[in-house]
Write the structure tokens for this entry.
Amino acid sequence: MTTCSLVRRNPIFKRAALSLIVAVIAMPLLAGGTKAASLEEIKKRGLIVATEDDYRPFEFVKDGQPTGFDNELIADLRKYAPFEIKQQILPWTGILAGVSTGKYDVAITAAIITKERKQSLDFTSPIADATHYYVKRKDDKSISSIKDLNGKVVGVQAGSALLARLPELGAMLEKEGGKMGKVVEYTSYPEAYQDLALGRVDYVVNTIINLQTLVAEKPAVFELGQAVSGKSFPAWAVAKGNTELSEFLNGFIAKEKENGRFAELQKKWFGEAFPNLPVSFEPEF
Amino acid sequence: MSGGDVLAILQGAVVTVTLSLTGILIGMPIGLALAVLRWADVPVLARIVTVYVSMLRATPLVTLLLLLFFALPNVGIAIGPVSAAILALVMNTAAFNCEVWRASLMNFPKDQYEAAQSVGMGAGLRFRRIVLPQIARVSLPGLVNEMSMLIKVTPVLAVVGVVDITRAAVRIGAETYDPLPPFLIAVALYAPIVFVLVSLQRWIERRQIMAEAAA
């Protein structure tokens, strides 16, 4: 029988290590084999849509039912599209990876358009104006403007555009002679808000829309600060090069804008309409 | 928190129990089969099992799940979130169960096996009548331990969109911005699930002791 002390001398141990290395090398090859489904294929098998489950007000779950801005648009899309819509609901972590590997055709969520993401994904027309703001504890009197954020601990979502654009805030602080404090990354925002309320972080950076909803819901705990980034737009994401699908979705968005439904839903979920959204957006960051 | 929210967490509990039970029921016999292959030192297969067990024990469940979920469609195998979750659970727990079974197989008294051989029992009958009842008893605490670990590892299945107890609670917290009440309910639900499992183990052990006393 093989015992622990034998494992080191055992060639099987070497073989296991070898097969691991092979697996690691093979992975990019497997991933390279993906291709996005054409509109023709989608018409046959249906459109596979991925949405998030904890990103209020864009998408969240209430009483077990998906709701929010994007979910209402999906309901409209079901009527507009001449094919079936299959919706998958999952956490943010797997969504963009799933779209770029072809597991899902489109991420109908508020994915902020960034330079880095544009390397592996294409984006539809922006669905909102999402300049980044910060939120703080209402009872924290030490923060009243951007320069007070000097050295304070910030909470932000891991792998998010908000994290990628924190250097912009860093530049603002340096101009005032300050610097960024420690950055704490969370898998999703509810945890970040909870830590802010508990005092483990001093402020949290997210889009104005998300933060307005948060502050409206918990006005006694949180208070909205100022903008910490330039223009930023969220949009839906499809696989790189799937122009057929992004054009189809842009057609849907244009129609919803035209008939006033887009503004109506923006007002309902974000508290304001954004009539001057660009049709396409080229990110600087 | 509304009544609908409590219902959503209870639905999550059904998912947690169903998936972990499926994982246990498929993974445990596979683990036994793997252990027997190694114990009997079947050429080639025994070595493959050794490699499999050491690799699977070194791979975090969440990483394995993401790999299966995103890589399998690339080689032409369509896999849904639930099937990917069950596959990952089974692959993981089979490796750990294999080691539990193997430990009791290694300690199995060889003379009993030879005695059975000498009275002319076939290999299958020998295993079923003589070996299995005894190793099952010795393995039980280790197996139940692994089962309760499996139940508590189910929240990682959420990465591919499976809504278990914890994910249902996270969703409610994201909607109400008040995560503590749903988490309290979630914690309160895991305890009875694991308790049922442990009670089952105690009941089996008690029955064995009684059977021995009667013999």
Remarks:
- Chain B has one domain: 3-214.
